[in-house]
């Protein structure tokens, strides 16, 4: 019945809470990530908490990987080393479960299919790169090198990743793999291997080369939708990848491409600060629910673009998106399973991670708030 109560509260507007200081929202979110780690038998992060079944799902290598920099950032900003230790343990676990070919598996640890996957491998690069820079532990350097080399070897000559798509998605030629290219940028920044940056640029170039005249990227969602729409979650992935590869390679044209896409998303932002969950190829929207993760990811994109370009008009939609997500974070409930967490969808029965609290919604929420806090300092937020 908890999920029905939550749905009713969402529908009638009773699941909107007073917005407090950023520090309080961050603390509650960071603590929930540690609860999600403790909820599994290993050191990975539970994929999500299912409020309908009142169960935790198994550890998820992909998003555990990119949560590692988030916890290191939080530990540094708030002088709280136990969060850094949690991040280190996650990185050790990622090395322990790395596949023999250097890749990262698809899905959660409970998945029956164990398949090397491009996107998941790209996301764990963030964790290994940061853990190596923080600890100088050689095992992280070795894992980072093996995974980065695997991604380069798996890349087709034109820069596309056509092989090793996730068996759990129906879209196989994924524009949002620019986020994997961004992972290669972090690997390059950590270890200085120019071939990784070259591969990242190659992927972004072929991806933007497939864009429509209006800037829309085809094949940019987890599922092939009949109307060719895409989630804000994956649109935001693609924008961030294009932006950060552009910055790392000195390509102003790629930064401008990211600006154009980010402005088109902002044009449909709701009055309450949330974004409609799906956009159509003409950049119009069609649904009333919001993908909570996408809100935070776009806040990060807008803030990064404001930092990089100096265009402060991009900061305003970011703050509004952050405030919306802060307003739906329950920091007062007695239920440890959801206190401080962010939903997949709002209302909670939306089509993305329905009735679940995925760990990456909370991870990106923290990144967006920390970037807002530290706006005057350019940080390597993942």
From TrEMBL:
UniProt-listed InterPro entries: 6-hairpin_glycosidase_sf, Terpenoid_cyclase/PrenylTrfase
Domain of life: Bacteria
Protein name: Uncharacterized protein
Organism of origin: Massilia terrae
């Amino acid at each position: 019945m908890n999920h029905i109560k939550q749905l009713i509260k969402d529908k009638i507007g009773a699941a909107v809470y007073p917005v407090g200081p950023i520090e309080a929202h961050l603390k509650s979110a960071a603590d929930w990530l540690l609860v999600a780690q403790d909820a599994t038998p290993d050191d990975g992060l539970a994929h999500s908490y299912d409020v309908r079944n009142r169960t935790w799902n198994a550890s998820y290598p992909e998003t555990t990987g990119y949560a590692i920099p988030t916890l290191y950032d939080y530990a540094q900003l708030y002088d709280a080393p136990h969060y850094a230790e949690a991040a280190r343990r996650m990185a050790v676990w990622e090395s322990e479960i790395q596949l023999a070919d250097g890749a990262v598996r698809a899905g959660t640890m409970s998945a029956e299919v164990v398949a090397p996957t491009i996107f998941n491998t790209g996301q764990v690069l963030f964790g290994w790169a940061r853990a190596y820079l923080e600890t100088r532990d050689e095992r992280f350097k070795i894992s980072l090198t093996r995974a980065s080399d695997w991604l380069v070897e798996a890349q087709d000559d034109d820069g596309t990743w056509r092989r090793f798509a996730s068996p759990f998605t129906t879209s196989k030629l994924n524009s949002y793999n620019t986020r994997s290219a961004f992972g290669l940028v972090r690997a390059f920044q950590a270890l200085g291997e120019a071939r990784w940056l070259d591969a990242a640029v190659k992927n972004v170039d072929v991806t933007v080369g497939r864009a429509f005249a209006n800037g829309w990227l085809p094949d940019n969602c987890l599922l092939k939708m009949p109307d060719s729409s895409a989630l804000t979650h994956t649109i935001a992935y693609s924008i961030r990848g294009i932006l950060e590869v552009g910055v790392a390679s000195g390509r102003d044209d790629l930064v401008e491409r990211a600006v154009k896409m980010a402005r088109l998303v902002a044009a449909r932002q709701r009055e309450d600060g949330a974004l409609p969950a799906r956009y159509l190829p003409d950049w119009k929207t069609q649904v009333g629910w919001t993908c909570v993760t996408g809100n935070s990811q776009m806040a990060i994109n807008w803030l990064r673009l404001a930092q990089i370009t100096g265009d402060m008009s991009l900061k305003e939609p970011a703050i509004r998106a952050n405030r919306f997500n802060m307003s739906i974070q329950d920091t007062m409930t007695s239920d440890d399973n959801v206190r401080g967490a962010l939903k997949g969808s709002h209302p909670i029965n939306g089509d993305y991670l329905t009735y679940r609290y995925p760990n990456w919604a909370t991870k990106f929420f923290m990144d967006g708030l920390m970037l807002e806090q530290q706006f005057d300092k350019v940080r390597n937020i993942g």
